[in-house]
């Protein structure tokens, strides 16, 4: 079935390429005698985009980025501090310590271990 379909499509494409195309208009070449070209003076300014030269001196406390704006370094520092505080929240590990203390009678908060049945200290693995 695939072979028949492939042959049929090939024949249709081949026959349609042999027929004359009557729907397309014939392109007419036209030449204009007048010219709209004006002579201009070219002024190349190397290293400056559209003539912008930027600031004369380096601005203290600011860093230049690729979007064309100046940002103070303190803004990035404040953003990092605020973002870190939001992401971490206030978690002092109290739920882990409470769970281990409730599960093991010999649990030590200072070392995060408990005394096992074999007489050795084991680290507490809580779900928190």
UniProtKB/TrEMBL annotation:
Major subcellular site: membrane
InterPro entries reported for this sequence: BA14K
UniProt keywords, alphabetically: Cell membrane, Lectin, Membrane, Signal, Transmembrane, Transmembrane helix
UniProt GO molecular function: carbohydrate binding
GO cellular component: membrane
Keyword Ribonucleoprotein appears in the UniProt entry: no
Residue ranges of coiled coil: none
Membrane topology: Single-pass membrane protein
Keyword Signal: yes
Signal peptide (residue range): 1-23
Pfam families: BA14K (PF07886)
Stretches that traverse the bilayer: 69-87
Subcellular location: Membrane
Function of the protein: Has immunoglobulin-binding and hemagglutination properties, and can bind to mannose. Essential for virulence. May be involved in LPS biosynthesis or polysaccharide transport.
Family: Belongs to the BA14k family.
Protein name in the entry: Lectin-like protein BA14k
């Amino acid at each position: 079935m695939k072979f028949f379909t492939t042959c049929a499509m090939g024949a249709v494409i081949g026959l349609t390429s042999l027929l004359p195309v009557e729907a397309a208009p014939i392109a007419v070449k036209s030449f204009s005698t007048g010219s709209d070209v004006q002579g201009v003076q070219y002024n190349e300014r190397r290293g400056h985009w559209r003539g912008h030269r930027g600031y004369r001196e380096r601005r203290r406390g600011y860093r230049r980025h690729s979007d064309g704006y100046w940002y103070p370094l303190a803004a990035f520092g404040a953003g990092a501090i605020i973002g870190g505080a939001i992401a971490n929240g206030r978690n002092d590990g109290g739920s882990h310590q409470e769970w281990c203390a409730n599960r093991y009678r010999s649990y030590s908060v200072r070392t995060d271990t408990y005394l096992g049945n074999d007489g050795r200290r084991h680290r507490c693995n809580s779900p928190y």
